[in-house]
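User: Fold this; tokens only.

Assistant: Input:
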Amino acid sequence: MKIESTSTPVTSFFKTQTDDDVTRAECLFANFICEHNIAFNTADHFTKLCKLMFPDSKIAQKFHCGRTKTTQIVKKSLAPDLQKVVVDHLKNKPFSLSCDESNDTHGEKSLAVLVRYFTTEANTRFLAMPICNIGTGENIFKHLNEIFIENEIPWKNCISFMSDNCSVMTGRNNSVISRIREVQPDIFDLGCICHLANLCTVAAVKSLPLPVEDLLIYVYYHFHHSAKRKEQYKEFMDFLDVDPSKILKHCATRWLSLFRAVDRLLHHWPALKSFFVSHEDVDKPGRVKRCADLLSNPEMHMYFHFLRFILPFLMEFNTMFQADETRLPYLGQEIRLLLRKLLGKFVQAKVIKETKDITHIPFKDPALHLDDSFLAIGLSTRAYLSQHEDDVEPSAVSRFHHSIRGFYMAAVDKMVEVSLP
């Protein structure tokens, strides 16, 4: 009798319909975790919760799908099946290839490879992510070629290549695209549209005579790791009636961060200027003195007002092409529209109207430029000039207008160079 009570019934060794339903539930749950980018640790808690929520369900009582099991279902079952669907499309249909390297400086670098193809709609799918610690054109292409060979994907089906616009990826010689053209001569180098707009912005900002980006970085890192400095600064905000808000970090590799950082610094300008000018280390060489000098410079203040005016035009272009739906048919039209907007801010309207191809406008000719009073610098910049007429030297105002023309010319020059045929 004792043996019978502790023995496992023979029926427990056979699969039942309930077991199939449990397996189905576990696969659906693992797929849900991936689809919604939920932490795998959630699976441990959900398994217990499931039994409490559905005590009368046989499936719920048999449901056991912790983080380890969920991970294995994704890696060993779902991923290969979903990958096969993607590879089958790439073997038989045209597609676009996109890749980018991680910029981790402390560990191994990964090369993310995505593909985009059409069925009844546009599909962007993950293909592979090999380790690629040596970021040369030769080595990156080697990894891409190995992926194609391993999955038996013909290069002839790859019709376009998208990447950031660095020389390693898109250079004329010894780059990834130059090697791809050896196996697929008809490939189209699309580049990254958002990178193109960012390159134009970077070129234009660098043309300004004062270090705008440096000031953003100096101020941010002065407060970043110091709770004491933040508390001291609150007194200046309260005294000057500046609404408290976080000083934002500008990251050069993040396309949309510059406008937000500029706008926030302008909001804090009176309090920041007072804080750094009255700082005990203001007379010592270092970051405090640099910040005090730049914040006290009326020209720097004017450049920040101008950037708050002009950057939204470039941001609007960037955000448009970060949408989920396909916008490629509008690319040429939108680039020319942005170019026309920029030209209209410093070139005479008559010249733009009479020129059929705006890329051929001699925009560097001073005779075609607008006068200072008509140059587009923004209402807040005009208001600042009017309010500080006694504080700003005429030579500084003249230098400012000259620099703004240089800003526009640098932006247009870069746009024509990298964006238009």
